[in-house]
Specification:
alpha+beta, GMP Synthetase, Chain A, domain 3, 3 domains, five-stranded antiparallel sheet, five-stranded mixed sheet, globular
Length: 340
Amino acid sequence: MRQRRSLKPSTVWVGLAVVVMLSFSAAQARAQSCDTAGDLDDATRAAISATGQRYFDMVARGDSASLRQNAAASLAADFSSIEAAVKDHQKDLADAKSTLKSIFLLHVEGAAPLAHGEFYCGVFGKNGQTANSAVFYLDNLQPGKYAVDVLDAASAKSDSSVSLILEQAGNDWKLGGLYIRPEAVGGHDSDWFATRAREYKSKGELHDAWLYYIEARYLASPLDFMSTAVTDKLYDEAQGAKPADFPQNGKTANLIAGSSTYKLTEIFPQAVGDDLDLIVKYQAADVSNATQSYQSNVAVMSALVARFPEIKDAFAAVVARAVDPSGRDYGTLLAMKEIK
């Protein structure tokens, strides 16, 4: 199982590669299935819940060594991302009290990896998902059983969602992935961002609306490869605010800054502490010259704010990242008030 970068770079992507597919064949449907907690027998449900709680306690203690000892072989071989995630979140989780939120059991049948998986969990109605359903979109899962154990972690500092991917190995459940994300930014949850997005949309400020819908969806689901009735509704709402002049679906967007034209590859919101910042990535031929890259970043930020002035009131800062063909990048952060 391999890691892929998500829309939100702060998300801990470990253990599973993800792709959203629009349809799947009957053969694929037979090769995959999903059970919710209510579908499981008592012994299986108890084993998954107990294992998830045990691994959560290791995370809260900062005990990466024990987590690695209990990891699936493919994850244990490259454990640096898990260690970084545990270290980054230890302060928030050290005194956190966990509550089990949901359990799902994914089945992959056959003798070969499942190229493209869509796991439909729970009851679906005529309009799609219901309050307790979920869909998981996954790539290249080996045959076997995988549990998704989602916990709410409440502490004096913050509330977080901790999701553990467990891979069955004999009678044991090994750690296959760890995902930690906040449930609010600056005290604002998904509902708050969705409300603000609708307000921006009603005022015709579609760029802010689109970006706030992205943040609302991010906070509404514990995993980027999981959709629910709430995230589906937010996705549908957001389509009416989708800006044509933002980079989308792998297509770049041109941004003119003086005599230069920059090809933007991504624009998305990202929480930094209690602030919501705007990240803009663009193509660069070379980032080895720090002075030149800094100047380009500042030019991009200035041009971005000039072209989309509405973002000044919606974000605390802008981070510009110049990315060269090898994937190396050079980043610069400026508070919104510093961008001229």
